[in-house]
């Protein structure tokens, strides 16, 4: 088996085939070729030197991660009734993954809503970034950071009021919010692969008001004096006033 990185350049030498023939020249001259396993035309072999090279770009993430090439070494029988003799060998080429892709969020910004007074730990939304790398380099870890630290001009402490599951990407509340005190927050969500590549997206959270206060009359008792006995229908006796008390 031969291990090579998916990122090797075209023309990279994988190995050199070497076969011996006990005949005398010219019958002992050996020629090499690939007989099977090279359907995608990714490899080439020099017929004289036997050097096996990469012919087209390899990609661990979208193609097979290993190849089995059947190579042949044939002698150079020149004179009838001699015919060329040959032998075959299978070479297993295994690709090694490189971290050549960056995580990606499907949107440039998330806008989400949270009701005021919801309990700590309430789910807000689930972020889903993708990384087309396979294996360890395709596994993502989510985290929250200050929006200001990533170039956005937002209130610095917003990121402390939310949490994200590092594996699942579920964002939850880390505080109980009051619409009347403050109703907008922003932070940056990051998705990092195990090779150090990172994607960032801005998250804006708006707090939704809830009907949490009961209306109250401005007076405990209202008194109205009627000066005459015979009043028309619709006569305005007086006015009462009610208010809704908030923390504002």
Automatic annotation (TrEMBL):
SUPFAM superfamilies: Cadherin-like (SSF49313). One of its GO terms (biological process) is homophilic cell adhesion via plasma membrane adhesion molecules. It is found in: Membrane. The keyword Transmembrane helix applies. GO terms for molecular function: calcium ion binding. Transmembrane segments: none annotated. It comes from the Eukaryota. InterPro entries: Cadherin-like_dom, Cadherin-like_sf, Cadherin_CS. Residues 4-105, 106-217 form the Cadherin domain. This is Cadherin domain-containing protein. It comes from Homalodisca liturata. The lineage of its organism: Eukaryota, Metazoa, Ecdysozoa, Arthropoda, Hexapoda.
